[in-house]
Amino acid sequence: MLDTVLSQGVSWVSQSAYIRLVEESTMTESNLDDVKQKLERYISMTTKTGQQLAWHYEEAAFPYTIEEKSEGKGKWLYLKGNNPELYKYIVIGVGSETVMDEESGQEKEEHYIQVVLPDGATHGDKSKANEFCKYLAKAYQAKLQLFNGRTMYFYPRKP
Questions:
Q1: For the chain, N or C: smaller number of CB within 10 Å?
Q2: What is the pTM of this model?
Q3: Which SUPFAM superfamilies match (predicted)?
């Protein structure tokens, strides 16, 4: 997915997490605008929580600005940290790949949202990326493959 970025000479020794949109998900494919809307909803929810608590919770919950770089237009978003000592950056992109359907044995296209921690990302970035991954996976009722390789299921599973 981020091959375009890699080929542009940017240092991206990175870790990735994947939010996989499966048949049971609320959507079987997504685009960057939809992901951005979900992040904006997250910001809105944390802002309202902060208002209820009389605290600027949104600054702690989402310490980033959402930027769209021209080289990643339509392919990935860049979350730039507001406090470079604690939070530097996270990259979020969308893509698809051909996978083998376990039940039918047929190939099918599976869409995903990839969350990337570029080289130099902080522990704070990783914590926030895990939080955002869980939020997005829950919003899409998707399958989440975390940075550590573990899988979490947020969709209704067959008994």
A1: C
A2: 0.85
A3: Rbstp2229 protein
